[in-house]
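Protocol step 4 of 6: structure prediction from sequence.
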Amino acid sequence: MTAEKLLKSSLKSEKKRFERMVGKQASAGPLSILTQQLREASAYDMQTFRMENADIRAKFLVLEREYEA
């Protein structure tokens, strides 16, 4: 019986938390949601470019050393 009460209480608090989160997103509007998604995508792109740049630089250094040798 106690476990059932605990689960019901947990479910109620989770429902309230979910409704607050959904309400925040709904009140934020689609423009701010799209802006956030664009920010996240841009951050991912910049990280990818940095990794690719490091890889290209490493390959260049190897080729440069081979050419000089």
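Step 5 (inspection) to follow. Residues 2-68 form the longest helix (67 residues).
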